[in-house]
Amino acid sequence: MLYGFGAYGLWGMLPIYFIWLMPANSLEIVANRVVWSVIFCALVITVTRGWGKIGAAVRNPRIFVPLAIAGFLIVINWLTYVFAVTNGNAIEASLGYFINPLVSVLLGVVVLKEKLRPLQWIAVGVGFAAVAVLTVSYGKLPWIALVLAFSFGVYGFVKNRVGGRVDALTSLSVETAVLAPFAVVTMAVLAGAGQATLTGLGAGHFWLMASTGVVTAVPLLFFGASARRLPMTTIGLLQYVAPLLQFVVAIIFLGEHMGLDRWIGFGIVWLALVILTADSLGHYRHTSRLRKAATA
């Protein structure tokens, strides 16, 4: 539980960290995040003597290809999230991660042809209603929230194709290594255009930027440690900690405004999540009873 709260708690506080990195723009922040993540992962892999796992993952197309695809999906997610936070849209960013569980259910229907239980259908329907209300509230489709929800949802789906064949550190290492050449070129282009801030704002800013590797890897490692020890129902409940913290940070610390119409839209989203969570808990208890009866 401590690992789980540590992971989601750190993810929930990310808006404050990205604000500290300004005036760096979202492109520079994400490029640095990729490069420093690769460096940090390489150090940890060296200490833990995990290069054999990296080699095995790279040589196996069934592992490497999904991880490469996952890398490009997660960089879309990172770019959108950092752009949202640094442009005064952290509340909408939190909405994306509230919607994400509903997107995961929807992907199960569309891609895997799964059959939904009645409460799951109700939750998805309520979720669509919430998006409609928020579209009216924002005066446009909440594209930041939808891009975040779908990019992370598809990212999770792709990672599930790999299953338990790679650990969290190996997965992050391969994903970011695939992106590293693009990130290095981006950093060089920004430096050449005089738009890079990495070395121009003092040692404090430099080390904050360099720490993006640690900030990226540590919560993921905490999550991996938590996921191996906790039931999936508990992990499913813990996932709401991050967007809830992001939501609170956006209002209290970043001073973003929530009008009545947006409160209504968010309230409908939270209703959908309550329905979805109740269904998940009920289904888990039912299947647990069946297993116990079968082994009695």
UniProtKB/TrEMBL annotation:
Localization in the cell? Cell membrane
Q: Does the keyword Transport apply?
A: yes
Q: How does it sit in the membrane?
A: Multi-pass membrane protein
For this UniProt record, the keywords arranged alphabetically read as follows: Cell membrane, Membrane, Transmembrane, Transmembrane helix, Transport
Q: Which residues form the EamA domain?
A: 2-135, 144-277
Q: Which domain of life is it from?
A: Bacteria
Which InterPro entries does the protein's record reference?
EamA_dom (IPR000620), EmrE-like (IPR037185), RarD (IPR004626)
Q: Which family does it belong to?
A: Belongs to the EamA transporter family.
NCBIfam families linked = rarD
Write down what this protein is called: EamA family transporter RarD
The gene name reads rarD
